[in-house]
Design goal:
- It is a single chain.
- With 179 residues, the chain is of the alpha+beta class.
- The protein is 44% helix and 25% strand.
- It has a four-stranded antiparallel β-sheet, with helices on one face. Strands 7-6-5-8 form a four-stranded mixed β-sheet, with helices on both faces.
- Helix 1 crosses helix 3 and helix 2 runs antiparallel to helix 3.
- The two termini are 30 Å apart.
- The relative contact order is 0.19.
Length: 179
């Protein structure tokens, strides 16, 4: 018999936060498009410089090539640095309790374990999406706010947690994106 409620006491670490940040930023919000587009434009102009054969065009082509290849690397490095800084600010090394979610037939109750504040209750129809990843579920309470539910931290199996979400969320709001 399936449980009527599932409680998930989330202990977060830096690696879990990093995995979520990469998913949310680069896969879900597709923030990779602008730096890659800019890099592609610079690389095209670098090729044009190399093929033109004009005086000093090789030097300009090399500069464009370096900037074009370096931009995405710098962009991703800065992003990962910001995630690392956020993890440090949240004191996630060693892993610590951050929140507790209780899934019930009428919605999700969210309790913040890091600071004292009132619990939040979200009805199922107000939750925009849930994504099943290889080692966690990302439950979005709003388009800009998500809760990370790592596998093995609930009082139910990961499959039971996902099945519970699929049963209670409106159609089309659950997505499986295992890597």
């Amino acid at each position: 018999m399936p449980a009527s409620t599932i409680t998930i006491r989330v202990k977060m670490d830096r690696k879990t936060l990093r995995s979520f940040a990469l998913f949310d930023t680069f896969l879900l919000k597709k923030q990779w498009k602008k730096p890659i587009g800019f890099a592609a434009i610079l690389l095209v102009f670098a090729v044009i410089c190399f093929l033109s054969g004009k005086n000093q065009s090789t030097l300009l082509g090399v500069v464009l090539l370096i900037v074009g290849l370096g931009l995405p690397v710098v962009y991703v490095s800065m992003f990962l640095s910001q995630v690392k800084e956020k993890a440090k600010k949240m004191r996630l090394d060693p892993p610590r309790k951050v929140y507790t979610l209780t899934l019930s037939p009428d919605g999700v109750n969210i309790h913040n374990d890091m600071k004292v504040e009132n619990d939040v209750r979200l009805p199922w129809d107000k939750i925009p999406a849930a994504f099943r990843m290889r080692s966690a579920v990302y439950l979005y309470a709003a388009p800009t706010k998500a809760f990370i539910l790592p596998d093995g931290q609930a009082d139910a199996s990961p499959a039971e947690v996902w099945d519970y979400l699929v049963q209670h969320l409106p159609d089309g709001r659950t997505n499986v994106r295992k890597k």
